[in-house]
Amino acid sequence: MPQKKKNNSLLDFLSQNDNYKPYLDKYYIIPKKMNNILNNLKLYKESTVFLNKVTKKEAPDYHKIIKKPIDFATIQKKIGKYYSYNEFKEDLDLIWSNCYTYNAGPYYIYCADTMKKAVRTQEIPRLSLSQDVDYEPYSFEVEGRESVKDKRNELKRVIVKIIKENGFEIATKKCIEILSDLLSQKILRELRNGVNME
């Protein structure tokens, strides 16, 4: 009996299959890239003023002037809910825009300018979502507003089906990470809800 090819990668299969590639991109690749971008931005010392929400103690009139407050922590929570890279970028731009509008002083404007420049000239191009081999930019805007839960479950089913059909050796480390991420989220959710998983 001929042996199965061991160099086939489940991730390669999913990324080359037009039916699954948008789900893989949207629910795994894009969120990972957004996390990388955000984490790299947080390395700048100027980012500290944008890490968390502005409190009333810090700026009593801030929420009267700024109608859509946003910060890195809020963006971090929204990763996985964005429907496109542009939505993520718009939220980053809103941080700087809010800073210019409120104008708390020269240091804050300097921080906003520095971070805006970092996004534009350093971090985003270096971690561009379209830089991945075999990942076309079209796939980063998935049509419709499908439920994240439904699509993650679909991706999980596809991975499990392929592993069952082709043997475990087809799965690369990256594929196992994807499956592990998907399963760990389910387990954590079940634990939070106090559901018996037996």
TrEMBL record:
This is Transcriptional activator SPT7. InterPro entries: Bromodomain (IPR001487), Bromodomain-like_sf (IPR036427), Bromodomain_CS (IPR018359), Spt7 (IPR037782). The gene is SPT7. It comes from the Eukaryota. It comes from Nosema bombycis (strain CQ1 / CVCC 102059) (Microsporidian parasite). PROSITE patterns: BROMODOMAIN_1, BROMODOMAIN_2. GO terms for biological process: chromatin organization; regulation of transcription by RNA polymerase II. Signal peptide: none annotated. Transmembrane segments: none annotated. Keywords: Bromodomain.
